[in-house]
């Protein structure tokens, strides 16, 4: 024998109490009156709000294991009223039949503590004006379950609601719609009430083709009840005989739909209560399928930082997510990133496990970063290169490829700032530039039409030499350097001084590379052939200010070679040339202003002496050369 506590809940026709009796439950067994007595009476708990809703007090049933109990609702009219024997008007009564056929009797569901029923209309004269409509405006069963759910009866309340959906489908759906859920979401509600609302939400979502919670919905209130969620708190330990294991599984699926709806809403509101899903995934979603509904999050970098901070609080709960799920998370998280700064923050999120060991996880972030890099200009690329030090090795190829691609268009315009930004990339040893890439970069720079980009060539080449770069073939760099310098001269101002000033800046970087410097010297010598003698000599007063001796010597050698071809004898033309060299007027004494001029004058004199031309000079030349010649370094006078 086993005791069972039950109660009855029923919607009766309005005003049915006016029949002169009172509603009762009548049925098998002494507890239900043996179909004769008004043992179980009904009452209205809230007649002003729910006038058709009647309930009984709890009843203790003593039953055998397999005993079936039948019952019905009736109006019990005591004998005193009609001055005759008592009268029981059963629900569903037809005609004048006093007895109720077995087909009209209800079967007690012993798996549920509460029986939720709706009066069966009859067509007898007594009940003719007491009929209940299919649309019960004060339908109260869902409210009753919600208001009375507790830690002790949560599982049973879930079963009762599922039973309501079967017994009174349309009324239950209407009574537990979104409006019901929304009005009952309250921070002060019991945890079990919030879980019950989640169940209702799951059913509501299941009935929609698509459903997104309105912005004003407070999803965080319901999400917070899942912090320590375990699915067994919803599942009955001993399901009723008419509830299969698949039914219990369906409850979890329904709850999962509610959770998905809540976390989607919460995440789209830029809140972070939704992260609890990672804590309870092992209970409801072992494959992390929930990531699919979160794929469109539009998080900024600051949002990602908040995300990471919140995840750190749950770090102990996510260490056993499994390898496949770790890959899924990495792919999902990397795709959410909108820029490289977000990538860096996401990379450091506690969800990214074994990132230093697993190539698949690295690849997820590398591919995403490559996309950002491919859209970046050089300034952004340089800044991001600095930011990506956390996992530079995995994306260095992307940075290198992008840097090289920026150089591919020789007509690309380069500002001074951009040119110096890209040299920072090429000088960054952490990007692991290969010898071949170094040669390619130099070759591309050498072909550029931008003076700003051409200007970085010497510093870049010097940097790579200092980092141990080796030109394995031995000919690439000299040839590339030669082409670069020729291109640079083509882009420079046509002035002679500009060329030698450029050499002055190049020499400290590349002057020690003799083969390269010799190539530059050869190009300058050839370039000087395009200038007249007077143009070259007129620049002496400027070129002498150059501090690099090797550059001065190159210039002097060019002048000496040129003079070798023109000095034949002393003449007025030669005198004029000497005056030009010293920047003196023809009617003044010859003053040699600097050592460069002095060396050239000495060279001319030596050249004349070597050719034995001096004794045969003409009178004017002799007169001129007899004048004192003043030098800032010495004093001398020519005489015949």
Automatic annotation (TrEMBL):
Which SUPFAM superfamilies does the protein's record reference?
Answer: Starch-binding domain-like
Task: Show the GO MF annotations.
Answer: carbohydrate binding
Instruction: Kindly provide the name given to this protein in its UniProt entry.
Output: CBM20 domain-containing protein
